[in-house]
Amino acid sequence: MDLFAGGNAILMSPVIKKQAGFTKKGNGSYDTTIAQLQMQMYLVICGFDYKRNKMGAPYGWAVSQYAMPETVFGYEHVRNRYHEPPADSAQAILAQAARICPQAGEKALRRLLD
Fold first, then answer.
1. What is the mean pLDDT of each run of 10 residues along the chain (114 residues)?
2. What is the C-alpha to C-alpha distance for residues 52 and 12, in angstroms, rounded to an integer?
3. What is the DSSP pairing of strand 11-12 with strand 44-52?
4. In the list 16, 46, 50, 52, which could disulfide-bond 67, CB 3.0-4.6 Å?
């Protein structure tokens, strides 16, 4: 999380791996660490981009870009729900998902969000 200090950083996955010291030889599990930070809502995927070669041209598969939720959604929007019980937050997330994807039934949305 030190890489995201200041709250404005948007970093690509390979940059995080390198700067945080994750190596192929094992310095911990990058995927597990990122997944835990996402589940705890410390980081969110905010987009995808391509690595660039020396000429600046994109190549390969798109990779995830990560940021703190405050960077993506705004500090006030994220912090103004901290007082809510988890059940209320879950209901708000379900309601938002239903607005975004009205054709999905509640059962399908619950499966997706659980």
1. 86 92 74 91 94 95 95 88 87 91 91 84
2. 12
3. unpaired
4. 46
CA separation for the pair 74, 64 (Å, rounded): 20
Site of tokens 């390198």: 18
For residue 111, which amino acid is it? R
Residue 96 tokens read as: 């938002």
Q: What angle do CA 87, 112, 50 make, to 5 degrees?
A: 115
> Does this model's pTM top 0.70?
yes
Lookup: tokens for 70: 């405050």
Helices 30-39 and 13-20: crossing angle, nearest 10°? 110
Q: Would the CA dihedral through 106, 77, 8, 39 be positive or negative?
A: negative
14 and 3 in contact (C-beta within 8 Å)?
no
β-partners of residue 66 are 11, 45
